[in-house]
Design goal:
Chain lengths: 447, 305
């Protein structure tokens, strides 16, 4: 079967062989109420309250939302607003830890006897898309009765350089991943489960091949080590051959995609009742002295992780949430580890400064690299000429900002930035067009 | 406020640069330069030097005067200079070569916005301008011994088949013609190098050459000589693969090669000129924006939207 395009990025999975270590309880955690797509959770505690690990801090508001739990035991200092890495201001709970990590005594495994019980458990677990998207897992699994789901695709591609936290989940918690995959399969009545793992992780493939041996409806798909295999649409196409149409969801083509770490977190809640309060985070990058995987309470300031990993070997000039292809640069080392944080990276001067862009030579490398078969060079030109109608024709909204175009560009054009700006230019244009049409329709109605 | 660098993803980039690509093209053109000096003498090197120097200088002065960023370091002007020189007879007066170089850089490239913005290949367009302006010196071809001689294409057109050089001489480049176009072996070595370095793909050169071969075969026009004569090898490998002025999709490259091949044969066989490579590539340059719109495979998820 023909697979989608991509780029060969350096793997740099140095930490893959290291068993994750636990971070000592930090002095302070900052837990944002919005670590998911949807409405921010509503705090149920107040300043001065004593909280225990696993205790509910904030409840989900509405359907597309997710509850937030305390990752430590300690005292709530204050409820404050904080600025996230994307510039948004969100409410956050700041807790001073007591270093005891007393576990909430109300924690006990949920009773699951039906699909409704299971979905409630997923919702209560606080699990969101841990691959980075942060979409509430329970919402993803709430499927209309008449919808046909053919595949549960477990995303173990982990195609970003450096990051190995999913690899560790697949090796250390393979039983949890299997258990949750089986639960989802059972309660949603899905005929096929496929584990998509990049071939640069042969030991993970091996483990899941063995686990799948006796299950006729489960299999492993060894995917090429070609970034971005872990992109949802790429994963779906390369495993099932199905294309997710513009503006549609995987469910519209009969697929549910779940990250392997999300599944493990759901299974943990089902078994113990302990919600998602800690994450395995890869700490790496050229500035970090001792790169390793660290099991971290959610809300831990990023700088604590670097300190724990021996500090910096050279001055850190750039810090990232996530991998170098799609990761977000941090302006502030006090920003906390979120539910969906799978890595924090720090780079020295040499790796932080991007090369200066030169004129586009129209070589077409971006076109041949784009997994979505877009033409980034035409989109950039349309953006420069301020032609939103061409952006629409060139399907800029299909872009998932994976960065293949910019990575391969010999002229070092900042193409992802252009894609983001082009999308908002197109959005404005479409809104304007809609308003004009509405005005016209209103006038017609008056007549 | 911290002093951390914040930038849009991706935070890593591939090593390849535009400059490195142009350097590869220059390296690929070296075998043909060696062949030219061997066949036509040291004056070939002088013509190449004058063209390159004029191109680089013209670009530098223009960008200074226009208060633009000087970009001669990207080596594109060097490539244009070499290609223009390769398209000239070895005895071209140097001032004429300089006029050609200025036309290529200023008129064809910079007036349209500089590198990446020109729609026509600068070297080819300048050659055509020179061909019309200096027709006598542009068709004054000499053979190895310095005596004026007809090119193989002129011989085919005139029906003097028996006077054609041997195939060995055609491969080595021992024949009348422009200084960089004669040695088939040297040009093919350069082409293979570019394909191995992934600077170009096989599509355009192979389709272009195959089209000329098939059509001249059908018309009974000495297909083997046709493919090796004139500027076809140079054009197919180095000019029809120019990034800026030719399609960037695989299907586009095939269409470009096919179109240029058909036009070349038509001009060579039915036109009043013996040679047609420059005109066909220029004509296809003009069609390139339209060819780029042809897509075999639509964006993923774009078809049913």
């Amino acid at each position: 079967m023909k697979r989608l395009n991509g780029v060969h990025v350096p793997h740099k999975k140095y930490t893959a062989i290291m068993t994750p270590v636990h971070l000592p309880t930090p002095d302070l955690v900052i837990i944002p109420m919005s670590m998911h797509i949807g409405a921010p959770a509503k705090p149920v505690i107040k300043a001065g309250d004593h909280v225990k690990a696993g205790q509910l801090l904030a409840e989900a508001v509405g359907f597309v939302s997710s509850p937030v739990y305390s990752s430590v035991s300690g005292t709530v200092i204050k409820l404050d607003e904080m600025r996230m890495s994307n510039g948004q201001k969100v409410p956050a709970v700041i807790i001073e830890t007591d270093d005891l990590q007393t576990v909430d005594e109300n924690i006990h495994p949920p009773v699951i006897e039906s699909k409704e019980d299971f979905l409630k458990a997923v919702r209560d677990s606080g699990v969101v898309g841990l691959g980075g998207a942060g979409f509430p897992a329970a919402v993803k699994l709430t499927v209309k009765e008449d919808a046909r789901v053919d595949y549960l695709l477990v995303n173990g591609a982990e195609c970003e350089p450096y990051i190995t936290s999913d690899t560790r989940t697949m090796l250390d918690n393979s039983d949890l991943v299997m258990q949750a995959a089986e639960l989802v399969r059972k309660y949603l009545n899905i005929p096929k489960v496929v584990f998509g793992i990049e071939e640069n992780k042969p030991e993970c493939i091996e483990v899941f091949r063995r686990l799948c041996e006796e299950k006729e409806n489960m299999s492993v798909c060894s995917m090429p080590a070609l970034y971005p295999q872990g992109g949802e649409k790429v994963l779906i196409y390369n495993i099932t051959g199905r294309e997710v149409p513009e503006g549609k969801l995987p469910l519209d083509v009969g697929c549910i995609v779940m990250n392997c770490t999300s599944l493990a977190a759901i299974a943990k809640y089902v078994n113990t009742g302990m919600p998602l309060i800690e994450k395995c985070v890869t700490v790496d990058g050229s500035a970090v002295r001792y790169p390793q995987n660290v099991i971290t309470p959610i809300g831990t300031p990023v700088k604590d992780l670097f300190t724990f990993c021996g500090g910096f070997r050279s001055e850190a000039r750039k810090m990232l949430y996530g991998g170098p292809m799609m990761g977000i640069a941090l302006s502030d080392p006090d920003l906390p580890v979120l539910k969906s944080t799978n890595a924090v990276l720090a780079f020295d001067e040499k790796d932080s400064i991007l090369p200066e862009p030169t004129a586009c030579i129209r070589c077409g490398t971006c076109v041949s690299h784009c997994p979505m078969r877009l033409a980034p060079l035409e989109i950039e030109r349309a953006f420069q000429l301020k032609k939103p109608e061409i952006l629409e024709k060139q399907k800029v909204n299909l872009c998932m900002e994976c960065g293949c175009c910019a990575y391969g560009c010999p002229a070092k054009r900042p193409l992802v930035q252009v894609m983001k700006l082009s999308k908002s230019m197109l959005r404005e244009y479409q809104n304007r067009k809609k308003q004009e049409q509405e005005k016209l329709a209103a006038k017609e109605a008056e007549k | 406020m911290s002093n951390y660098i914040v930038s849009a993803s991706p935070h890593i980039r591939d090593r390849v640069t535009s400059q490195r690509i142009m350097l590869d093209v220059i390296i690929a053109l070296v075998p043909a330069l060696i062949a030219a000096i061997t066949v036509f003498g040291l004056r070939a090197a002088l013509v190449v030097f004058v063209c390159v120097a004029t191109c680089v200088l013209a670009e530098f002065i223009w960008q200074k005067l226009m208060k633009k960023t000087v970009s001669v370091g990207d080596l594109t002007a060097v490539v244009t200079g070499i290609l223009l020189a390769y398209n000239l007879p070895v005895n071209i007066p140097l001032w004429q070569a300089m006029v050609g170089a200025v036309v290529a850089i200023i008129v064809v490239k910079q007036l349209f916005g500089g590198v990446g913005k020109n729609f026509a290949n600068p070297a080819i367009t300048a050659r055509i301008v020179m061909f019309l302006a200096f027709s006598v010196s542009m068709t004054n071809f000499v053979s190895v011994d310095g005596v004026s001689s007809a090119t193989p294409l002129a011989l085919i057109t005139a029906g003097r088949i028996e006077e054609l050089p041997s195939l060995t001489n055609m491969l080595l480049g021992v024949r009348g013609g422009c200084l960089g176009e004669t040695s088939v072996i040297a040009l093919v070595i350069g082409g293979v190098y570019l394909i191995c370095r992934k600077v170009i793909t096989w599509h355009t050169p192979v389709v272009y050459l195959a089209t000329v071969f098939v059509f001249t075969l059908l018309l009974g026009q000495q297909p083997v000589y046709q493919v090796m004569s004139g500027g076809l090898m140079l054009g197919a490998i180095f000019m029809a693969t120019d990034y800026v002025t030719t399609p960037y999709t695989a299907i586009g490259k095939v269409i470009f090669g096919l179109g240029a091949g058909i036009l070349t044969v038509i001009i060579r066989v039915y036109g009043s000129y013996a040679e047609g490579v420059s005109y066909s590539i220029l004509l296809m340059n003009i069609l390139t924006p339209y060819i780029n719109r042809i897509r075999v495979r639509l964006p993923v998820g774009g078809a049913r939207a």
